[in-house]
Amino acid sequence: MKSFISTLALAASLTLPSAVVAKNVTLTTEMKNYRGPGAYLVLYVADANDTYMGTVWMAGGKSKYYKHLPNWHRATRGDLAQVAGITGASVGSGRKHELNIELSDALFDAGYKLHIDTSVEDGRDVANDVVIPLTSANMGKSVRGKRYIKSFTLK
Amino acid sequence: MLRALHKYAGLFATVLVLVLALSGTALSVLPAWEKLQAPRTGGPDLTVADLVVRVSNHYPGVEQIRRSPSGRITAYYFENDLAGAVVIDPATGKGLADYEKSQITRWLTSLHRSLLLGDSGRIAAAAGAAAMLLLSISGLFLVARRMGGWRQFFARTRGPVAGRLHVEIGRFSAAGLILAASTALFMALNTFEILPQENTTPDFPSQVSGEIGLSPAFMPALIAIPVTRLRDLSFPYANDPTDVYTISTDHGEGYVDQGTGEMLAWQPLGVWQSLFETIYMLHTGQGAWALGLLLGLMVLGVPVMVVTGVILWWTARRARPKMPRGVVDHKADTIILVGSESGSTWGFAGTLHAALMAQGQKVHTSPMSRFDAKKYAHAKQVIMLVATYGDGTTPASANGFLDKLDTLETPPDAKLAVLGFGDRQFPAYCAYAKLVAEKAAEKGWATVTEFATVNQQSSQEFARWGATLGDALGIDLELEHNPTPPKSHLLTLISRREYGQDVQAPTAILRFALPRSSLVDRLRGKGWKSFEAGDLLGITPQGSTVTRLYSLASGTRDGFVEICVKRHANGLCSGQLTDMNIGDSIAAFIQPNPGFRPAKNKKPVILIGAGTGIGPLAGFARANTQKRPMHLFYGIRHQTSDLFYDNELSKWQGDGHLESVNIACSRARDRAYVQDILRRDAAMIAKLIKEGAQVLVCGGRDMAAGVAGAMDEILAPHDLSPLTLKAQGRYVEDVY
Q1: In this predicted model, what pLDDT tens digit does every residue of A15-26 receive, in sequence order?
Q2: Could you give the number of structural domains in chain B?
Q3: Residue of A nearest to B205 (CA)
Q4: Is the ipTM of this complex over 0.90?
Q5: How many CB atoms lie within 10 A of CB B229?
Q6: A35 and B64: CB-CB below 8 Å?
Q7: Do residues B51 and B16 share a domain?
Q8: Other CB atoms within 10 Å distance of the CB of residue B142
């Protein structure tokens, strides 16, 4: 288990040693026109039992708002080390967010799922706006989001 | 320093501050509006448990309940794959209206805090708040200085409209602006996480009961919290036994077990967080709507302050003259030192500087604050042109002068001349200039001319002083300075009455229509001023640069502008005026002359005049609707030819505007001058004076001297004299 976490952490840090076998994936999140300021999104991986494994990306720069990303915050207790170096800007209403990243092969077809929690100022906080199992079959597929996310594509 | 800080902060932030103020004012009404809209609380004892039950009845898919500081309760629900938000009536749990924050509010909020530019905009907005804070604080000190100290902070303001508005609105708004700006800065520091960030959420409990299905109505933790404390309640995910209720109140945040209804973990609000919330409330008025409205009203003063501030800056800037290059101080034989607050004294200094240079003098001009006696080795004279700020305070460009003077062990060899500039409307007329002259005298500093003053930038008084100075220096010094003249307005003649043709003294009473001026001109202090009889009408005739002043025989309330003009043999201005036909126009401006008018009381008034000197006196009589006892003593040539205002005088006497009219005719059979009829009525005049009467004299210099002589004789037996009365403001003259 521990090795998995470290692999994931490496995967997330984007600086993957060439020795590790990894997939180059593009994660595309398209937001709905929810009419409001930029949304905070956090992409993280959990296992089949929904146990948090590690963060892939945090969109939103101000850590004081991270508590509004419910499941992620609950799992990490807002630990900023989880998002160090993998943080970007929040995503505006109707905008598209694209992330190119190398994810360890070990994460695919092993029961892991990618989760996205979202939050918008003055709107409700959403756990699991998107949940998508990390499987080869899901590569290239789009799923609909629950609240602020219109669609999410794994490629 | 203070003024420069105020000026540059203001100019730098003009637009920024304007945007922040206008959007802030618009936002300030929202809390009150929300309060008005919010449904009643549903009873003070309503608990969160009750509320949850009521809301769940109507919205089984409820996920989150929020209560805003105004008391509005919003429920977020998820039904049939659709997310919704609705404003709840807490009394029933029913939805009142779909909730969506209005686009305009959202836009205004974003404009107000980040200029619609994200984080860089937030930094700019914070800089705007910092500028606002600087402006407010430096402004307060400037007002105190202008008013003559903190005790006079709320004293009456004087001067042009722009300056008065700037000060008056500033005094009213300063407290609100300081509050708004300092809280904004605190919030910005918090946003950028420069202030300590506290953990506001408790650690998630390691163990939950794992049960679900307990009705919120029976949850002790929810029963214990009244709705008035509630901020936010998030429901557990449906059918997830590991999840909990997350509740936040104005005390802190905690997790409630969905099986037992017990509080599993609780994180009380930290010190910083509480402080932040208080500051947030003070800034936004959310939860304090009345404060919000008051703050908004105060901030509404900002646009006016910006406009008037820019006008003040521009006016002061324009007043700065371009003067020929002088020489460095240690080579100069004449040093001109300028003590100026708003810049107008520099104009006079420029004229003096140029005139002295034209006479071959080596001149160096600098602010009084740069006074440095050691460098004046070659100087033969030091000339100080000194304005006074507010209630006798040091003007900006003379800061520190008196201290420097004080430290001198011996006075400079160069001789001194001090000329004060001021306005007799102010009680401390030329007070600082006088102080400078006195302190110099105490040091034993020899003078080249006596201390003199110039009232209201009078070019005549300045020219007269220049002639005196020229005599003392042995040069021909002609100072023709026309301080940027007050803006003239075109007056159109509407009537004229002729007198005195057959006594070789053609005279006309000219009546003009009141001109109108634009709002911008009025704000700039360049509009047509309101005036009273006794004020002066300035006219610069064609073909001349020197302005003539005529005493006004009417006030704004009369609805016209009236003067009495005698045509002089070679008089340029009087010629042009008396040649005017009905419908012709002439450019003129008002120069206040507040010293020459009846005191505001009910005591008797003695009006003494001759010839065209009747003008303002007739105006006083016309305005005497209170019918206080006014006695007119009036000298003319002949009853039938130059008794100006003949019809009115008898009318005013009839209706009580004038108690008595006493006329002396110098060309009638019983030759008499006005001083003769004063002597004749000595007993009555003495009696009136003892009752507290005020004497107003208007006319030529010779007449005024004759009248003063007669009054001296009349009053001497009563241990009084025109001089003692003058000291009390009870004997005033307008002499030409």
Answers
A1: 344 445 778 899
A2: 5
A3: A74
A4: no
A5: 15
A6: no
A7: no
A8: 22
